[in-house]
Amino acid sequence: DPDANQRSGGAAVRPAGATARASVGSNTENPRFALLFDCDGVIVETEELHRKAYNASFKHFGLVIPGKGKVEWSVEYYDVLANTVGGGKPKMRYHFDNNGWPSFFGGSKVPRTDEEKTKMVDSLQDMKTEFYKDIVESQAIARPGVLRLIDEAIAAPDIAVGICSAATKEGFLKVVNSIVGPDRLSRLDVVMAGDDVTKKKPDPLIYNLAREKVGLPSSKCVVIEDSLVGLRAAMGANMPCVITPCPSSDVPEFRAHGARAVMDVNVGLGDGAGAAVTLAKLFPANAAEPNFDFGGGYGAGYGSSSGGVAGGAGSYSVSAPERVTRGADG
């Protein structure tokens, strides 16, 4: 990439690492900037895949809530749930706490103690992850422009690049190995999943750890997110954030919450000659700070969120004290 060489003074492109793994060490020496990607919703639109995997797990265990029937999350209900609670296990706990705890295989015994509830949620999550891996392999595709931008960052020896996800490591690695690929992963400076940190997004811990790995101040680490949960994590780490909303999202006004740019919901980062976000635009040669003036009027809000919505048949309404967009599993 001649532009990358020009930006870095002709330095050699970074070498590939030996293996693709979580929490890799930095491949980039003395980077000018870092580019950190969320996974679910940014690299791939996965929310519908997560919903299908949860329902498959519920069906596998024959979950029934006494007096309400089987547990099955509709598209509409899952959108509300995903916009209310971050993380897979917290999502199930929130649902069961509000609608009643279920029994396995339609039996009469429901979990009463916290230990029993934890055991049930762990079993459901483990099975959900297995279903999810199979679904990802057959149905997941990359969002527009994301692999192009990752490749541009990898080709630039003075830009550190990483992926920081709130998802469980097993499911996360299935997604990134299928979509990003082992060769790209081996060239990244940071690869972290939710299991690698003690606190998940919106806590900023994962981004603070990424910053430490690449050895840069927060102002020089740009985060690409799709959710208010992720935006809050970036803001908590004092990192500038670009939002690429998912087409399925009920999108709030991200700019009001601190996003430096909000991309078109149907375009994402963009591909081809008219790509909205390129490495050259984001990190101009000799610039001391990132640039967020991509042209095209990006940064305007795309709708707003409000209230709770009742689920469809076989699901239950959720009260939403605060809706947060797309931090569910990514």
UniProtKB/TrEMBL annotation:
InterPro entries reported for this sequence: CbbY-like, HAD-like_sf, HAD-SF_hydro_IA, HAD_sf, PGP-like_dom2
Low complexity: bias regions: 9-22
Domain of life: Eukaryota
GO MF assignments: hydrolase activity
Residue segments, region Disordered: 1-25, 308-330
NCBIfam families: HAD-SF-IA-v3
Name of the protein in question: Uncharacterized protein
